[in-house]
Design brief:
Elements (H helix, E strand, L loop, with lengths): L6 H13 L13 E6 L10 H14 L7 E8 L2 E7 L6 H19 L1 H6 L12 E4 L2
Antiparallel strand pairs: 1-3, 1-4, 2-3
Length: 136
């Protein structure tokens, strides 16, 4: 994996060996992210929430295989979503977001035809921008 050859990981392993007296092969790095993004133009399409919550939760869990890790719905609002992700480190955050957004876009448009009508031009539900922070 490219991540494990990165300078940051090399530094962490060297630090563990020097400061902690630990075997660098035994150092385990766990990635955890909080991601959030908006529906384009902040349109409240995921409304009423009760109609979307179980579909959204199940669909986000299916996204886990897209990032080779774990994806869970943290918070669902009519115009944005928050996710908790634990990837394996094989993909960049940008690539994970792209894959998840595309999967969700297709799933929502397939299940809820009224959403497609709101995005006649190109049928892209999500804004291009997103928020990401590490957690844990």
């Amino acid at each position: 994996m490219r991540l494990f050859r990165s300078d940051k990981i090399k530094y962490e392993r060297a630090l563990a060996l020097q400061k902690l007296g630990r075997d660098p092969e035994g150092v385990y790095v766990q990635l955890k992210y909080h991601l959030a993004w908006n529906v384009r133009h902040r349109m409240p399409i995921l409304n009423p929430i009760n109609d979307f919550i179980s579909f959204a939760h199940d669909t986000f869990l299916l996204c886990s295989e897209k990032v080779n890790g774990f994806v869970d719905l943290h918070y669902l609002a009519p115009d944005h979503v928050h996710l908790y992700i634990e990837p394996d480190g094989g993909l960049s955050v940008e690539e994970m977001v792209h894959r998840i957004k595309q999967f969700l876009n297709n799933a929502i448009l397939e299940k809820y035809s009224f959403v497609r009508e709101k995005f006649i031009k190109d049928a892209e539900i999500w804004d291009e921008t997103y928020f990401v922070e590490t957690v844990g």
